[in-house]
Design a protein that fits this description.
Elements: H1 8-14, E1 18-30, E2 33-44, E3 47-57, H2 70-78, E4 86-94, H3 99-113
Antiparallel strand pairs: 1-2, 2-3, 3-4
Length: 120
């Protein structure tokens, strides 16, 4: 329920990180699911942190809309649709200044670890 509220754009600066810049999204295809990561560079004590953040539905069915306001959440709940199936993933690469280099590390990590559960 906190997706959209609890995100790097909000939490990293609140934790003392300074935003350095945004980059093109990283697109990762997993079977018939496309996950789009927002990519942002932050700095803490002059050390770079490359942050990759994505949200998606963990089922292959009708999409549940992304909501940001309390009113939208209440409307969604009133209609009987829930955010129960919404997932998020945040990957933080510390100490790599070049986003291109960090992006390759993230892609390699996703290719070797991200899978649909066996019972799907």
């Amino acid at each position: 329920p906190f997706i959209g509220v609890h995100s790097p754009e909000t939490c990293m600066p609140a934790s003392g990180f300074r935003k350095g810049g945004s980059h093109p999204p990283l697109i990762f295809d997993l079977d018939d699911l496309r996950i789009e990561f927002d990519v942002t560079t932050f700095y803490f004590m002059n050390r770079p942190y490359q942050v990759y953040y994505a949200t998606w539905n963990d089922f292959r069915g009708p999409s549940v809309p992304f909501v940001e306001t309390t009113r939208e959440r209440l409307q969604l709940a009133w209609s009987g649709r829930r955010l129960r199936n919404r997932r998020s993933l945040q990957i933080v690469i510390q100490g790599i200044a070049e986003e291109r280099t960090a992006r390759q590390e993230v892609i390699q990590f996703l290719e070797t670890t991200l899978r649909w559960p066996e019972n799907e």
